[in-house]
Amino acid sequence: MPPRLANRIRGLGRLLRRGQTDSTGPLGDRTPAAEDPLLAIGRRLREEREARGLNLRQLALETRISTPVLEALERGWRDRLPEGAYLRTMLPLLEQHLQLPTGCLDAALPAETRQPQPRGGRGGLLQRFTPGSIDVFSTWQGTVIYGGLCLGLIYALNLQQQ
Predict the structure, then answer these.
(1) Domain range for residue 70?
(2) Helices and strands in the chain: count of H runs, count of E runs
(3) Is this prediction's pTM over 0.85?
(4) Sequence-separated (6 or more) residues with CB below 8 Å from residue 77
(5) Which end of the chain is more exposed for a tag (fewer CB within 10 A), N or C?
């Protein structure tokens, strides 16, 4: 075998080994890598759903949780999951519907939403509501401010015209 071909085959072998989930320990022994808790939760959800004979669509209709969110939970796709506040209400519904122990799916929550933070003080409600944090048309606060501003300008224009 020519040396160039042998080097390419070795390089291909290294490339394929990179995708494996096992990791080599410091002494060269192979130990399984720590599994992502979201993947473990997803596997458990899928097993429980299939044990009850439900497909994703049926579970989505019964729990009123969208199919893409259920699929993201089962496959461990963090980037496709909703915000922690929404996830916090969805997980107990799934636990109740699939008759799982309460709190067993909490590892799917983002770290900052696992423990509820007290209101007030730093990080509370007052810090989040600032004029710079208002999205004008996507929140009710922005809509109220925009409407008030429009009414005020119309009133000022009306006073000027008299």
Answers:
(1) 37-111
(2) 8, 2
(3) no
(4) 71
(5) C
